[in-house]
């Protein structure tokens, strides 16, 4: 699919690991570049959006961080629907030797969870579980090399930059207060796929010497089927579905990023 994070049935595959224990980045005077997919571009906040099909929002965490920290320079390169290959072929061109801070969320679209959600929506519990397990196999066996390539390209172009890898929240609270929709069995299966992605992403980020931020932690009790969700369920326009709301960007992603940058 051309832009999997913008589709009606999109799982922005959940993941990410460890709210940094390393020293905060030097925010003052930073030359900041934001890379990644729609979770970084800000789809789901209701717009308005800029950057054409990249759908960059003024309510996205990179823009909010830049507004509050006044870096020396800020390049918003994140783009809706991006996969690892898109980062390599285009987004890394925004980096240079003077870049001092990079943020990125990537891997959800590569993992193919659009089809996972579609399968889980249209089929029974066991079919859903089987499809999630297929997705996990990709995450464990094929995604590591893709992430390594992205991280190596970032290091090559910006060897002095602090790189912060932000992941994805759990989609569902299980059990939750949703009356309609997927069963708890399906919700748990989807969340387990997100956990697999988090495990792999955190390991590859650590191997590259990058900081890995666990969005799942701060998102607890704000998933779909919670009483205070920061994630859209099925909504209109459909491209906003299964993406963070303005609260998800400001209270989730931005707060998590501030914890490691000061």
UniProtKB/TrEMBL annotation:
Domain SGNH hydrolase-type esterase stretches: 34-250
Assigned keywords, A-Z: Disulfide bond, Hydrolase, Signal
Disulfide bridge positions per record: 54-79, 120-128, 178-225
Catalytic residues of the enzyme: 38, 243
The organism's place on the tree of life at top rank: Bacteria
Molecular function per GO: triacylglycerol lipase activity
Keyword Transferase belongs to the record: no
Signal sequence interval, chain numbering: 1-27
GO biological processes: triglyceride catabolic process
Name the record gives this protein: GDSL-like lipase/acylhydrolase family protein
């Amino acid at each position: 699919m051309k832009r999997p994070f913008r589709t009606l049935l999109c799982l922005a595959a959940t993941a990410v690991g460890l709210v940094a224990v390393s020293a905060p980045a030097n925010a003052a005077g930073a030359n900041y570049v934001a890379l990644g997919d729609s979770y970084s571009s800000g789809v789901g906040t209701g717009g308005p959006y800029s950057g054409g099909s990249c759908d960059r929002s003024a309510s996205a965490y990179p823009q909010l961080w830049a507004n509050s920290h006044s870096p020396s320079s800020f390049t918003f390169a994140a783009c809706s629907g991006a996969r690892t290959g898109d980062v390599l072929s285009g987004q890394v061109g925004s980096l240079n030797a003077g870049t001092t801070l990079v943020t990125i969320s990537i891997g959800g679209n590569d993992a193919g969870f659009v089809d996972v959600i579609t399968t889980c929506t249209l089929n029974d519990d066991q079919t859903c579980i089987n499809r999630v397990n297929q997705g996990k196999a990709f995450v464990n066996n094929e995604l590591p090399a893709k992430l390594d390539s992205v991280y190596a390209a970032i290091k090559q172009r910006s060897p002095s930059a602090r790189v912060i890898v932000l992941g994805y929240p759990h989609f569902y609270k299980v059990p939750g207060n949703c009356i309609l929709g997927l069963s708890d069995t399906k919700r748990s299966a989807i969340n387990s796929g997100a956990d697999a992605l988090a495990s792999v992403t955190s390991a590859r980020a650590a191997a590259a010497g990058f900081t890995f931020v666990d969005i799942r932690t701060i998102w607890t009790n704000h998933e779909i089927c919670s009483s205070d969700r920061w994630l859209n369920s099925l909504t209109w326009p459909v491209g906003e579905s299964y993406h963070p709301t303005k609260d998800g960007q400001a209270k989730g992603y931005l707060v998590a990023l501030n914890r490691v940058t000061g």
